[in-house]
Inverse folding.
C-alpha cells in the first residue's frame, strides 16, 4: 500500500510510473525475507545500480553516525560507487559484504571490491545475535532482483524493523522533475519516536497515540534506531553534487519527524547514472556532463519529497508482526487517513 493510492499527496512533484527507486532506468532491487518460528524476523535487500555493473558517480551523507554503511571512505575518496549495495541487520553486515564480493567475482568484474553495505538493528523482533542471514540468502536476493515493482514493508532487510513506534521496514518512492530527471529513493526505516511522527505536515504521531495503536511492549521509544537512505537519479551529477543530494534526504527524514538522535545511525548514499563511465576498452579519460548547480534545486526537492514518501510507504506497507520480544503494530491506513482528514 502506497501513500498516493490513499489520496495522500506529499510535495508538489509527480511520481514516476512505479513510484519506486526502479523508476531510474537500470536500477534493480531484490529481497530475501527470513521469517521462521517465533524469533527469526530478518533478511537482506540488494540494490543493483547499473545493469552491467559499470561504476557510477556517488556521494554520501551522515546525519548521525551510530551505525554502519561500509565502503563510504572509498566513495568519498574516489567519487565512485563500484559495487551493488546491501541492506541488512546490524550483525549481518559481514556476511552480506562477503557475499557481494563473491558475486562480483562470479560475474568476472575484477579482483578488487569494496562493497557498500548498510545496517539497522532488528533485535527487538529478531534473534539478531544468531546471525541468520547467510551467503545463499544474499545470492537469492541477487537472483530475484528486478527493475519492476519493489516490495515494501516487512521484507528483506526491513523485515524486523520498527519506525516511529509502528512496524517499519523497506519503503520506496520516486519523483520526476520538470526537466525530466527521475529521482528514486529506497529506505530501510527503523528510526524515530511515535510522538514526533508527521505526515504531510500533520502531527500524526500525536493523533494516533498509544491508546489507539499500542507501542511495542518494553521497546525503547526515545528515537533510538536507524535509517538508511539510498537515492538514485538519472541526472548527470558529479560526485560532489551526489554528496549534496544525499544531504537533502535528511530533510525528508526531518519532515516525517526524524531527528538523528544520539543513538541513531542515519546514513544516505546517492548515486547518479547520467554519465557512462566505462567502455569496451580501458579508458584513460572520460567525457562527462554535469547538471548546472543553478539547475539542481528540482533534484533536491525531488529527493526530499521521495524520502518523505518512502518512509510513509514503509509504514503503510508493514503489517503488525510478533517476534522475539513482543508485538509491533502496523499503522492502520484508515487511522492515517482520518488523522490527515483524507
Amino acid at each position: 500500500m502506497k501513500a498516493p493510492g490513499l489520496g495522500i499527496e506529499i510535495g508538489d512533484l509527480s511520481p514516476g510510473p512505479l513510484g519506486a527507486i526502479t523508476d531510474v532506468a537500470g536500477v534493480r532491487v531484490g529481497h530475501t525475507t527470513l521469517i521462521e518460528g517465533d524469533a527469526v524476523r530478518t533478511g537482506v535487500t540488494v540494490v543493483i545500480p547499473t545493469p552491467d555493473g559499470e561504476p557510477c558517480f556517488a556521494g554520501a551523507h551522515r546525519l548521525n553516525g551510530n551505525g554502519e554503511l561500509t565502503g563510504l571512505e572509498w566513495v568519498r575518496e574516489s567519487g565512485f560507487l563500484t559495487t551493488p549495495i546491501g541492506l541488512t541487520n546490524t550483525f549481518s553486515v559481514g556476511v552480506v559484504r562477503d557475499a557481494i564480493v563473491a558475486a562480483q567475482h562470479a560475474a568476472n568484474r575484477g579482483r578488487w571490491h569494496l562493497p557498500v553495505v548498510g545496517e539497522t538493528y532488528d533485535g527487538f523482533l529478531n534473534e539478531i545475535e544468531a546471525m541468520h542471514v547467510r551467503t545463499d540468502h544474499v545470492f537469492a536476493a541477487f537472483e530475484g532482483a528486478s527493475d519492476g515493482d519493489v516490495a515494501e514493508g516487512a521484507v528483506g532487510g526491513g523485515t524486523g524493523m520498527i519506525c516511529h513506534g509502528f512496524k517499519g521496514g523497506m519503503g520506496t518512492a520516486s519523483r520526476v522533475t520538470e526537466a525530466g530527471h527521475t529521482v528514486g529513493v529506497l529506505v530501510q526505516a527503523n528510526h524515530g519516536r511515535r510522538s514526533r511522527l508527521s505526515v504531510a505536515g500533520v502531527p500524526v504521531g500525536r493523533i494516533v497515540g498509544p491508546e489507539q495503536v499500542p507501542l511495542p511492549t518494553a521497546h525503547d521509544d526515545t528515537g533510538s534506531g536507524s535509517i538508511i537512505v539510498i537515492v538514485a537519479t538519472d541526472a548527470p551529477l558529479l560526485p560532489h553534487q551526489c554528496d549534496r543530494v544525499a544531504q537533502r534526504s535528511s530533510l525528508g527524514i526531518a519532515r516525517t519527524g526524524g531527528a538523528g538522535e544520539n543513538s541513531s545511525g542515519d546514513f544516505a548514499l546517492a548515486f547518479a547514472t547520467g554519465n557512462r563511465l566505462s567502455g569496451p576498452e580501458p579508458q584513460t579519460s572520460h567525457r562527462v556532463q554535469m547538471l548546472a548547480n543553478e539547475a539542481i534545486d528540482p533534484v533536491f526537492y525531488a529527493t526530499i519529497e521521495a524520502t518523505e514518501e518512502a518512509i510513509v510507504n514503509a509504514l503503510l506497507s508493514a503489517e503488525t508482526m510478533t517476534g522475539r520480544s513482543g508485538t509491533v503494530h502496523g499503522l492502520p491506513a484508515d487511522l492515517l487517513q482520518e488523522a490527515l482528514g483524507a
